[in-house]
Design goal:
7 helices; 33% strand
Length: 558
């Protein structure tokens, strides 16, 4: 076991275990954060990198290991590193203004903690727009016990790379929220809808969207109009490769390190078996496609049965672009990316009905009543089997294209498919407290918030150490919101009882309510936010404080 006081010579050994991603093995890990000129899109741009690498080096840890990570800031601006999904002391979490002061120019901060988990995780900057500018890397933690052996093991790190400076992008959104929506419907679409739906239904549909001051093409705030989509820092043209031999069992560790982009992932001609979500083992489920929200991770196993090249294909959720790599048996054999599928429009049903009020983002009465009903029911008793089933029915994470005719026979991962490999008996019985958290915003002004209060004006959420909190996330907006709670696990109530999966990110679709259980088992001040970077930056952020009770303090003193 490596101890924090034992500092051995650091070897930044760069080799090809993970194709296209550098790997670092050492007793003490050193990362130097700097700016670097890169040329990903045919012109030089400035990236924020760790150890001169985009993405940052992949870190390999072992469960129960004591790690020391010395992070040096070689820039002229403050920086930080957050260890996403890692259970650790809050002062090591790496969020300036919440858990520490940040890393000033020229300074080194030493993160020290024991690794208490295994699986696929990642790390990224938590200062300004540095995450969007390239400061992110993978973390692979080996278990202390034997694991399922595979022949090949690869990181597939998805990201969105902007043509414009991220600060300029945010400024454009504040001035015109649909600045990047170049996929608006036309007059030809109007007549096409009349043929399909009829005149009056088409007119009613247009009027409803007009009242909400939005378009059914408003699926992503920022899209392929300015983004290039990367795998391990490479554009589709760069020819990222993952090698296999016929008969190999291959683990692909998908990490969505994007700032704003959800991806729909598939490998045409090859089924995937999902075996882990957010680093946690789940009961294996065979799928042909899955949606990965911003900041989520999924481990999948594939077994190529023919000696051909396969496309590892990740479409942006709004079909404005894609990331692509080749899974291939030969270095000289690459496969072309498949054609993008047609963009799917949002529907009024997904938006919570024609009176959802998204023009100003006032609370929708139907959603409010739904949240009140859920809370009222759980104030008196746990959800019954019937209620539980009905509640789970609107928690799906189905992609927006799940009604496409070309996918009618396709197996697409749903949140309800995720079952923990090991039961969590602590989820049985009523929670100690319930909190309804509304996900709110004003798209016209591009301001995002919880409960209509932006972070700068909000009081922290305070809970007691040892409590189990049930959160009801009520999404009153037209956007997906991947909600991330630092330092603590969220157990998704997806109808699987004590086999509910535990995740560090929960994606909440437009107009939906999702419930999670959070055991408050880690003292300290934690960040709690939407992981869409521009949403977090404009106010969808809270401080979550877990406080010791007198009983805990007395017990510790004894």
């Amino acid at each position: 076991m490596t101890t924090p006081t034992r500092i051995s010579t650091v070897m930044f050994a760069i080799f090809g275990l993970y194709v296209g991603v550098h790997s670092v093995y050492a007793d003490t890990y050193r990362l130097v954060i700097n700016e670097k000129s890169v040329n990903l899109i045919g012109e030089p741009q400035v990236a924020v990198v760790a150890n001169d690498s985009l993405p940052a080096p992949t870190l390999h840890w072992r469960e129960s290991e004591d790690v020391t990570l010395q992070v040096t800031n070689a820039m002229q601006q403050e920086t930080s590193i957050h260890w996403h999904g890692i259970v650790l002391p809050y002062k090591m979490d790496g969020v300036p203004g919440v858990s520490f002061d940040g890393i000033a120019p020229g300074q080194t901060f030493s993160y020290q903690f024991q690794v208490k988990q295994h699986g696929t995780y990642w790390y990224h900057g938590h200062s300004g727009m540095q995450e969007q500018q390239g400061l992110f890397g993978a973390i692979i933690i080996e278990p202390s016990h034997d694991q399922q052996l595979v022949d090949r093991d690869y990181v597939v790190m998805l990201s969105d790379w902007p043509e414009a400076d991220p600060h300029r992008t945010l400024a454009r959104l504040k001035k015109q929220s649909d600045y990047y929506n170049f996929q608006k419907r036309t007059l030809a679409d109007f007549f096409s809808d009349i043929e399909r739906l009829g005149f009056w239904e088409t007119v009613a549909d247009r009027m409803a969207w007009g009242q909400m001051r939005m378009e059914p093409t408003d699926i992503a705030d920022v899209n392929g109009a300015t983004y290039h989509f990367l795998i391990n820092g490479k554009t589709p043209e760069a020819g990222q490769k993952y090698m296999f031999k016929l008969g190999d069992k291959v683990r692909l560790r998908f990490i969505n390190a994007s700032a704003m982009t959800h991806f729909d992932v598939r490998i045409p001609g090859l089924k995937m078996q999902v075996v882990a979500a957010d680093g946690q083992s789940v009961a294996p489920v065979d799928v042909e496609e899955f949606r990965i929200a911003v900041a989520e991770t999924y481990d999948v196993l594939v077994k190529p049965q023919t000696e051909q090249a396969y496309s590892v294909f990740a479409e942006a959720m709004d079909r404005s672009g894609y990331a692509h790599a080749s899974l291939t048996p030969r270095e000289d054999l690459l496969v072309a990316a498949p054609a993008l599928r047609p963009m799917t429009l949002l529907t009024l049903a997904e938006m919570g009905g024609a009176h959802a009020g998204h023009g100003s983002h006032d609370t929708d009465k139907a959603l409010t009543l739904e949240a009140q009903d859920v809370t009222a029911a759980s104030d008196h008793a746990p959800l019954s089997a019937d209620n539980h089933s009905a509640h789970a029915s609107h928690q799906a994470n189905m992609p927006a294209h799940d009604t496409d005719t070309d996918l009618a026979a396709t197996s697409v991962l749903d949140y309800r498919d995720l079952k923990a490999a090991i039961p969590e008996h602590g989820l049985m019985g009523p929670p100690d407290r319930e909190i309804t958290l509304r996900l709110t915003g004003n798209m016209n002004r591009y301001i995002w918030s919880f409960d209509d209060v932006k972070y700068s004006d909000a009081e922290p959420i305070r809970v007691k150490l040892g409590e189990r909190i049930r959160f009801h996330y009520v999404n009153e907006t037209m956007m997906n919101h991947p909600i991330h709670l630092h330092g603590l696990w969220q157990y998704l109530d997806n109808g699987n009882g004590m086999y509910s999966p535990k995740k560090h990110v929960i994606n909440v679709k437009p107009g939906q309510t999702v419930s999670v259980d959070v055991p408050a088992d880690a003292e300290g001040d934690w960040a709690f936010h939407c992981h869409l970077l521009y949403h977090m930056d404009t106010g969808m952020f809270r401080k979550f404080i877990v406080e010791k009770t007198a009983d805990h303090a007395a017990h510790q003193h004894e």
